[in-house]
């Protein structure tokens, strides 16, 4: 600390002024489109999107909306789950998804994700006869270091 004080005095005595600013680099925001579409999910099936989250992504979260029509309930189930949960779920095993809308006509989600592969699923497997039309938007939002 004494050396810094001497340097400042020497610079001031010489008629020089020094301004030292230290700004931490700001994270850079990103928003990747996962889905922005309308599609049909046939009866007794589901449709999915894969989302890969890397360790370089800071605070990754999946945000979106959905609206379903068709059948007697105009409904769909939207799920967000890890890769291992998706494998277990698709084989009929119980899982604890990161997001489960239940049967809804319309809804929105905002799910923070860990590093790894995740699945955004539009599930119509509960409907034995009715296809569902789904309009959806989904974006993966995250920051990166500059």
Summarize the structure.
It contains 2 helices and 8 strands, in the order αββββαββββ. It is mainly β.
CA radius of gyration is: 25 Å
Q: Quick one: CATH class?
A: Mainly Beta
Sketch the major β-sheet. Answer: 4 strands, antiparallel
Strand content: over 45%
CATH architectural name:
Sandwich
* SSE run: HEEEEHEEEE
Question: Which percent range fits the helix content?
Answer: 10-25%
Count structural domains: 1
| CATH domain fold name | Jelly Rolls
Mean pLDDT: 90
Number of strands: 8
The secondary structure category is: mainly beta
Q: Uncertain runs with pLDDT below 50, 5 residues or more?
A: 1-12
Q: Give the CATH superfamily.
A: GOLD domain
Could you characterize what this model shows?
With 146 residues, this protein is mainly beta. It has one domain (27-144): Jelly Rolls (Sandwich). It has helices at 2-13, 83-90, and strands at 28-41, 46-53, 58-69, 76-82, 99-104, 106-112, 116-123, 132-144. A four-stranded antiparallel β-sheet has the order 1-8-3-6, with no helix packed on it. Strands 2-7-4-5 form a four-stranded antiparallel β-sheet. The radius of gyration is 25 Å and the shape is elongated. The relative contact order is 0.33. The model is unreliable at 1-12 (pLDDT under 50).
């Amino acid at each position: 600390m004494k050396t810094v004080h001497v340097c400042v005095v020497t610079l001031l005595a010489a008629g020089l002024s020094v301004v030292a600013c230290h700004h931490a680099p700001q994270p850079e925001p990103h928003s990747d489109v996962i889905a922005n579409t309308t599609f049909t999910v046939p009866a007794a099936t589901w449709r999915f999107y894969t989302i890969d989250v890397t360790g370089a992504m800071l605070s990754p979260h999946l945000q979106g909306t959905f609206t379903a029509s068709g059948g007697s309930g105009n409904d769909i189930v939207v799920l967000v789950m890890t890769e291992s949960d998706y494998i277990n779920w698709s084989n009929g095993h119980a899982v604890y998804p990161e997001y489960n809308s239940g049967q809804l006509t319309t809804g929105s989600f905002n799910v923070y994700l860990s590093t790894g592969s995740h699945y955004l699923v539009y599930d119509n497997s509960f409907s034995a006869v009715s296809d569902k039309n789904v309009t959806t938007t989904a974006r993966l939002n995250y920051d990166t270091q500059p």
